Prior knowledge:
Blueprint: E1 2-9, H1 13-24, E2 29-33, E3 44-47, E4 50-53, H2 65-72, H3 77-80, E5 81-85, E6 88-90, H4 110-125, H5 137-162, H6 183-192, E7 203-207, H7 211-219, E8 225-227, E9 234-237, E10 240-243, E11 247-254, H8 261-264, E12 265-266, H9 270-277, E13 283-294, E14 301-303, E15 311-315, E16 331-338, H10 343-350, E17 358-371, H11 376-388, E18 392-394, H12 397-400, H13 406-420
Parallel strand pairs: 1-2, 1-11, 2-8, 6-14, 9-12, 11-18
Antiparallel strand pairs: 3-4, 5-7, 9-10, 10-11, 13-16, 13-17, 14-15, 15-16
Amino acid sequence: MQHTQYLIIGAGISGLSIARMLKEQKKESIILEKSDRPGGLVKCDVVDGHLFHRVGGHVFNTRVPEVKDWFWSHFNREEEFLQAVRNAAIILGDKIPGYPIENFIYTLPSTTARQIFTEIICLSASGKKDPLHYDNFEAFLKGNFGETLYKIYFEPLNRKIWNTDLSAVSLPWLEGKLPMPDYHEIILSNLLRTQESNMVHSHFFYPRKNGSQFIVNRLSEDLNLQTGIDVNRLEHKGNKWFVNDIFSAEYLIYTGDIRELHSITSGISHDIAVQLDNLQNLLSNGTSNLLCEADPTDLSWLYLPGNETPAHRIIFTGNFSPENYPPNSRRSCTVEFSGKTSLEVMKNSLKKLPFNLKFIDNNFEPNSYVIQRKGDRERIASLKNLLGNLNLHLVGRFAEWEYHNMDKAMESGMKLIQKIVS
């Protein structure tokens, strides 16, 4: 039996960050990872000289000072990272407006633009209100941007991404990730034709080499990381947790999928067991990704709300760093589809997309995005509190069922450390 004070399940960004923070506090921990290497959703591979973000394209930025300070204490910003300005656009019929679309209404057909401006002005004149007061995601988009922008852009794009009824999607969990409208700025941006600088990811940092895998590899250095271990049994006995009848710990930190806990956890109360069982209906989306070569462009992201392709975005990761593609080659990009999409369908869709895309490799991730519906957050908060009393702590996107990006995963880990380390 291997014993440790802190046992961490999952070696994605959440698990690695927590283990690193514990090490800095001189606390002992073991990380168990099902895969053969760390990284979780942010892991990368090199295929024919091209860096492949197997799930999306992960970059670092944060507005949380504590996270920023902690992150840069582990990396040399000037030597190991590049800073980039987000340059995103949208294919909308035969137009390619910039992003966010509300700042580029002037590029749309005049009839459409006139209707959108009329709705924006009416919304502005109706009086200032909290943009997050709406009951669901659909109501938020319609109530803040008007029916026309919702119909031509927000609804088709988000339907592709989330693959669910937008009126059933809870709103609070998307705070900090949604485009918050400022009608004054929207009108000025369209009149003066200026770029928005305050939106999420308007600037970001990216490793010069190996993408987000570089971050993973650095954070995992000198940690007690054991890979290839499928955790199939958690037992609470006395004041300890026993894992697979091989490991024991005072504190168990779980960063895996909360929906799996009901089938592997024992030694808990009937109430907790019932609550765990009731979380099996939580919704998530997977993603299918193609790594492709592309003709030159200065874009970083291109959004695809139209019906001409099932893909919902292209991430031009080759533009993030010159190390992401081989010399004398076209730059690479990742084309992302929601859910499990056949390779044949994905390859055929490339013919309908710009930049002369050439297939290199593909990947399917069964769970990439969490979908939070009404009541989910409250149910999970209650469960987190009960499990926390047993020293089982949930951290990370799929453990907390929160749409955490890299920095939010680190922040969540930081809050846990402050709570459990005396």
